[in-house]
Amino acid sequence: MASVSKTSITIADHAKAAAALQNFSISLFQAVGKHHGPTENVFISPFSVAAVLSMVGVGARGNTALQLKESMGLTKYASENGNSDSVIGSLIQSMKGDGNFTLEAANQLYVAEKYQLTDEFKQNLNDNYGASGQNVDFAVDASRTKINDWVEEFTQHKIKDLLPEGSVNSLTKLVLVNAVYFKGNWMRKFDPSLTAVEPFFLGSEDKQMNVNMMHIDAEFRTGYIESLDARLLELPYEGRKLSMFIVLPNKIHGLLELESKMHETSLDDSNVEMRSAKLHVAIPKFKLDADVKLKDILIHMGMPDMFDERVADFSGVSGEKDLYVSNIFHKSFIDVNEEGSEAAAATGSTARMKRSLNFEEDQLVEPFIADHPFVWFLRDNDFGMWIFLGRHIEPIFIRADPDLTSTHHNDEL
Q: What integer pLDDT is reported at residue 269 of this predicted model?
């Protein structure tokens, strides 16, 4: 494993790391989608998962480390850029809000009492990821509560009970946690008086449900992605540093095909030709919270060794091959409404002893009506890092009366 780097890290370095992680984000999204079936909403923070896996990778050696790097798409990146720990860690720590929005991310390292870590491992996590170790007694359930309380407080009480009962015990030696929280207003807010009950088609024209559909007429960046047979819309937050992007299939039933082809088209500005145009936009209000157990998903993605106590090699943590990852827990939350969005996510790892636009300038732009299943992602525009990613298949809000009374549906993934 590379040692801690003191080399100055540039914006270009961050952008390269984010680009390398975009493929991982898509692979993780596809794997979670397949694991839970084609009719369920999917919602993850690939940024949070990548943060924890990167920290896990600091202590990995041998084939365990190789599987992590290959599955995260970092093998080529690391060979070309030297110490990936310092760049990725710096990218994670650089995710900060400003006067326009709130964006906070933090890492924490919890270590069993009397369990000795190598100086290199402690220094790497502290210098590159800002995760200083805290000693706890995992044999006492209060340690799990302490970790969950930190996550809940950091995410403004949106993520609760990240580590479920029984997830830590006397054999637990190490817990790595990442938490991220975002809240921002749209650059162009939707007028609540225009929100109306309208049909959302559930993958076919003969199956639909009513939703609260938000409407606006304003200038937005939009483009067509021919390879995905879809349209792309950017909804910027105040300051334009962050945006939500909606990838809407042209066909009502086109989501599964779109998802299967996402690796074929890089959804960044250099690949998708977008232009600003005044158009009518309609998107549903939605609120999601998700609870994803990542162990089986990550094994399927090519990382089995770290969960296998017979072969896991985390000798970079303590100098001994005495650890394996028992599970990785991930929770996320998002609320999209007329004002903007609020989102949060947390990921915890427990280690135990063993398209293009072709229309003319004066041509009327077709309205963007997201009335059928779509993919969305929330991106940091400076670096291109995908912070949240999901698919919206099942309507979440149903208006029961003129006062916009709504019901909250929880998706447990």
A: 58
